[in-house]
């Protein structure tokens, strides 16, 4: 057994810091038993069955029937283990088939009632710390009620507090059971008390469980313990410095600059020092991902490549011959593919040489020694400029391909969401075994044993149905997936946000501004990043609709938007808990969707459409394509930030007061601090005071947007670019009160088409058909919004009319 443990520990350690992979999790999975041997009910390792029975009777006196079967199990186990050598129960266990991790006690007992007696005996030995099993030996015995043995046996205030916290946690019963089981199992296999369940040891348990899970079934390759981790963190058992979720603990944190360089194993210590010093010097101006990219290009691709060609190279003075040889080698990537973007390699290298030259003027002692001619010739950069133009042309071609396909994608996600929402609605109302029909297809609702148990306890059952082909469908999951597909596509296309900006939206990014005339304008705040400025987007009716739908979904049943942390994959840091909008329940935990996950979802959507629409073959929308499409429609997508900032600074006080009733003050403070931190990274000139003229112009913009059928969604300070043909214009937001006017226009158009038909005006017919198509599309959009009409669920600030 100990060999197996050691082998596994070694395997785990290989993935830890110190290995050259540098992809280690934020918490190092390890357990270090400094606790004296833990025997909550005395050291029974050499006790006979009678002594164990006596202790067991004190710990678990009831029910009598279970007590008797447990005793029978203990006798049978003792007899079985007696056939194997050893002075202690542990030694005999390790020598027996039970310690081999290959067979469960119940199987050795022949299954049935006798098998259950064996299982009870095994639980007794584990819980009283007579035998310390390996994780695989514990799991193979399927000890579903194991916490009922461990918690009384430990009689530990900490563990009792954890059990109470799990019971009060907002988790399903299923995950509550798992949370308790995971902690009891971790304590058992590590042989420790609850006090020694640390982030490191618990992560070790999660790693080892993943390793020992059979390679089949639902939980292949998954980590356990997410719920337990959240409760342990929330109750303060884990230190505040620990990540709040197990998933965050698994993510690699930022590398230090030394680690960024060292992972490329630079042999010459002087060169290593130079690279480290160079990156430290650039650190204040470049974000983390920029530094990583610079280290990759300069250290790995350039320097290590040069050394491979000329091992004697001792400084930066690279001959043209060596450089040309290196250049030929670097145009092909490690995977054998052609490198398309050579500027990503050559630009950092050129910048490196030129930075050293300019810094040497001010600090000759530090940098002067390294100054030399840059080996990358100017002519190469000109070629790169031409290559970049080719890339831009390819991007434009992609946008032209995607533009006509966007309505198809939107129709697909809308129809899919509505179909699943209808199915969920109908199936929720159906009883177990009840058949119902939607659109000619028949479904049958089905309840699992767990569902029946939930219903008996007054809880809602999961919604599952069988379709006509006999497939069992998890309707909750499918509807949820369809909703988020719709929400992602709609938000991206109506806002033009970058993917990371989308995942960063929180309920606190949504603001309302009430104009002096009472009109309420919904605004979306896009936090500034180091490389891009803050934006405030006046929301169109469509964007408002999708954001409100998300908030309503997250606050169903009167909840507030759940607080979750967000992992920034570029900077590799976690945010403070915030009411982020693009969050999902994934198994045991809730988290903000990842940018990779969203891109993957879009890819799957396009593949699904391609099954019926050949235009989608080999085509897929990337998140940034929506931004490009948005930009081709709108030249500018927000208010000038100094007006937006004045507006928000002004509204913050009002809005904050309202939000305090919804979230605790810490949350508001975290969000404000986050904005302030980000604003500091931007030049101060972006936030000048707003002049009276600018403010009046801002107010007038909204008056100018009023049109007969509703309001125009064109960006701030832009004229109408569609010649006021509003019915045909994608920027028109139709006021639902003006639907009757759409009907009148439609009737008029139909009459005109009839006349054109009679007169043979073919050109006129084509134009009228086009207008009719737009008109009907707009009416469909408005009706869809009315069907799913929501408010934003945010406090309304008091009316104010000037930033003052
Ligand atoms: S045509 Fe479009 S941009 Fe012009 S006013 Fe009408 S809705 Fe606005």
UniProtKB/TrEMBL annotation:
The keyword Ligase does not apply. InterPro entries: DNA_brk_join_enz (IPR011010), Integrase-like_cat_sf (IPR013762), Integrase_catalytic (IPR002104), Tyrosine_recombinase_XerCD (IPR050090). PROSITE patterns: TYR_RECOMBINASE. The keyword Cytoplasm does not apply. CDD domains: DNA_BRE_C (cd00397). Keywords: DNA recombination. Residues 458-672 form the Tyr recombinase domain. This is Site-specific integrase. It comes from Mycolicibacterium komossense. The lineage of its organism: Bacteria, Bacillati, Actinomycetota, Actinomycetes, Mycobacteriales.
């Amino acid at each position: 057994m100990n060999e197996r443990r050691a082998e596994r520990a070694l395997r785990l350690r290989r993935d830890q810091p110190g290995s050259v992979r540098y992809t280690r999790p934020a918490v190092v999975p390890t357990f270090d038993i400094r606790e004296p041997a833990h025997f909550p009910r005395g050291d029974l390792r050499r006790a006979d069955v009678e002594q164990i029975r006596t202790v067991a009777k004190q710990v678990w006196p009831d029910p009598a029937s279970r007590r008797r079967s447990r005793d029978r199990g203990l006798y049978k186990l003792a007899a079985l283990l007696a056939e194997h050598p050893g002075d202690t129960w542990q030694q005999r266990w390790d020598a027996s088939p039970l310690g081999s991790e290959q067979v469960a006690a119940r199987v050795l007992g022949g299954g049935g009632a006798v098998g259950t007696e064996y299982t009870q005996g095994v639980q007794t030995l584990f819980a009283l710390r007579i035998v310390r099993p390996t994780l695989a030996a514990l799991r193979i015995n399927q000890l579903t009620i194991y916490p009922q043995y461990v918690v009384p046996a430990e009689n530990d205030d900490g563990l009792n507090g954890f059990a109470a916290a799990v019971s009060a946690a907002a988790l399903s019963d299923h995950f509550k059971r798992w949370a308790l089981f995971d902690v009891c199992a971790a304590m058992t296999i590590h042989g420790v008390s609850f006090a020694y369940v640390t982030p490191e040891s618990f992560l070790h348990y999660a790693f080892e469980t993943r390793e020992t899970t059979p390679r089949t079934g639902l939980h292949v390759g998954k980590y356990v313990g997410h719920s337990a981790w959240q409760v342990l963190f929330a109750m303060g058992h884990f230190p505040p410095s620990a990540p709040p979720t197990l998933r965050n603990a698994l993510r690699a944190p930022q590398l230090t600059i030394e680690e960024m360089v060292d992972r490329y194993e630079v042999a010459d210590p002087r060169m290593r020092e130079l690279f480290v010093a160079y990156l430290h010097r650039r650190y204040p101006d470049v974000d983390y991902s920029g530094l990583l990219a610079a280290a990759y290009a300069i250290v790995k691709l350039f320097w290590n490549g040069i050394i491979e060609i000329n091992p004697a190279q001792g400084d930066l003075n690279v001959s043209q011959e060596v450089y040309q040889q290196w250049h030929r080698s670097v145009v092909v990537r490690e995977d054998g593919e052609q490198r398309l973007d050579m500027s990503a390699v050559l630009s950092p290298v050129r910048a490196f040489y030129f930075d050293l030259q300019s810094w040497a003027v001010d600090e000759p002692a530090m940098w002067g020694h390294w100054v030399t001619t840059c080996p990358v010739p100017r002519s190469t950069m000109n070629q790169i400029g031409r290559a970049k133009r080719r890339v831009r042309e390819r991007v434009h071609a992609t946008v032209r391909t995607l533009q006509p396909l966007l309505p198809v994608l939107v129709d697909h996600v809308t129809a899919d969401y509505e179909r699943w929402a209808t199915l969920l609605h109908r199936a929720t109302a159906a009883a177990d075994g009840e058949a119902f029909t939607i659109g000619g297809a028949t479904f049958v609702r089905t309840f699992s044993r767990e569902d029946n148990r939930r219903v008996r306890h007054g809880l809602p059952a999961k919604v599952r149905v069988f379709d006509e082909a006999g497939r069992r469908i998890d309707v909750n999951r499918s509807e949820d997936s369809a909703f988020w597909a719709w929400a992602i596509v709609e938000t991206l296309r109506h806002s033009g946000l970058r993917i990371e900006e989308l995942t960063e939206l929180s309920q606190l990014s949504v603001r309302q501004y009430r104009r002096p005339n009472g009109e309420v304008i919904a605004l979306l705040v896009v936090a500034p990043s180091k490389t891009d400025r803050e934006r405030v987007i006046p929301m169109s009716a469509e964007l408002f609709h999708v954001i409100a739908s998300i908030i309503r979904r997250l606050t169903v049943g009167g909840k507030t938007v759940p607080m979750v942390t967000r992992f920034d994959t570029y900077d590799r840091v976690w945010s403070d808990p915030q009411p982020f909008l693009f969050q999902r329940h994934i198994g045991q935990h809730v988290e903000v969707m990842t940018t990779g996950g969203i891109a993957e979802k879009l890819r799957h959507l396009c593949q699904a459409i391609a099954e019926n629409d050949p235009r989608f073959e080999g085509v897929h929308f990337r998140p940034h394509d929506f931004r490009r499409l948005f930009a081709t429609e709108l030249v500018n997508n927000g208010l000038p930030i100094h007006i937006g900032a004045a507006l928000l600074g002004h509204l913050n006080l009002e809005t904050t007061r309202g939000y305090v009733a919804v979230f605790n003050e810490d949350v508001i403070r975290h969000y404000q601090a986050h904005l302030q931190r980000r604003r500091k990274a931007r030049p101060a000139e972006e936030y000048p005071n707003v002049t009276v003229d600018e403010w009046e112009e801002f107010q007038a913009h909204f008056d100018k947007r009023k049109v007969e059928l509703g309001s125009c969604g064109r960006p701030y300070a832009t004229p109408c670019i569609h010649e006021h043909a509003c019915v045909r214009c994608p920027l028109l937001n139709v006021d639902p009160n003006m639907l009757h006017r759409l009907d009148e226009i439609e009737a008029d158009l139909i009459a005109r088409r009839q006349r054109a038909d009679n007169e043979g005006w073919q050109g006129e017919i084509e134009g009228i058909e086009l207008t009719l198509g737009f008109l009907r599309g707009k009416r469909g959009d408005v009706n869809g919004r009315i069907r799913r009409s929501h408010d934003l669920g945010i406090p309304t600030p008091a009316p104010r009319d000037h930033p003052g």
